[in-house]
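quick one before i forget lol
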Amino acid sequence: MATAFKSFVAVVFISAISFQSCLVNANFNTDTYFNWGAFHSYVFGNGEDLNLVLDKVAGSGIQSYNSYLFGSIEMLIKLVPGNSAGTVTAYYLSSKGDYHDEIDFEFLGNSSGQPYTMHTNIFTEGKGNREQQFKLWFDPTTGFHNYTIHWNPNAVVWFVDSIPIRVYRNYKSEGIGFPNRQGMQAYSSLWNADNWATRGGLVKIDWSRAPFTAGLRKFNARACKWNGPVSIYQCAYPNQVNWWTSSAYKQLSWDQQGKLKWVRDNYMIYNYCTDYKRFNWQMAPECSKPQY
């Protein structure tokens, strides 16, 4: 009887703290801060909008006050228009330290008239080299588009306007890294990467077109707030409040799988799992596993 009571108390405790942890209503004014370049970037629209700016002096970046473990992190982004060659607009989650976890969107600028390259990557305990790249099927500079990182104990899914473009499943039980033990903050930045971003660094930034501006809107973290190591269990505990643990999110629907295939068949331009020369045929173990 005592054991059963203790188990009941533990469940109530985990559920209660999970409920507290996932009530996240993000706003740029209250939930993020500039970690560099604040002197020429700005928040407006009651905290709903933010402009990142890059000029010859500096770029700019923000990060969330809170760290998160599981849920959905969403941002509406309008990328730098015109000749954005050499610039990178980044939007990602990351923990800290040498053995950090990280989930990335990066948008590599282009010469006028050329499509952006959308770069994705995932790090687990400091190990990355899992890049996949895509060309976008729309002009990301004429309006805002939704970029979402959905992350639960089963998988990480990258979405663009609700269309899944990439899945990384949890095979940690088989010795393959997965980000499920570190809280991550949300970041976004606009910076000078003309040593590599456009055609491998061959095309440099045209500073006569500065300042460059990327628009961010409606940062939304529907996610479990990290409260230290206890969150490893609280945020993964399957209950109604931890909505990302629902069976509906364990695998993509048939419709989502069809959209994912469409994107990957038509717009993927690089996949680390098929770059045999780079890895000397020693491919990452997840490359031989089903991801969706």
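fyi DSSP finds four helices and 14 strands in the chain.
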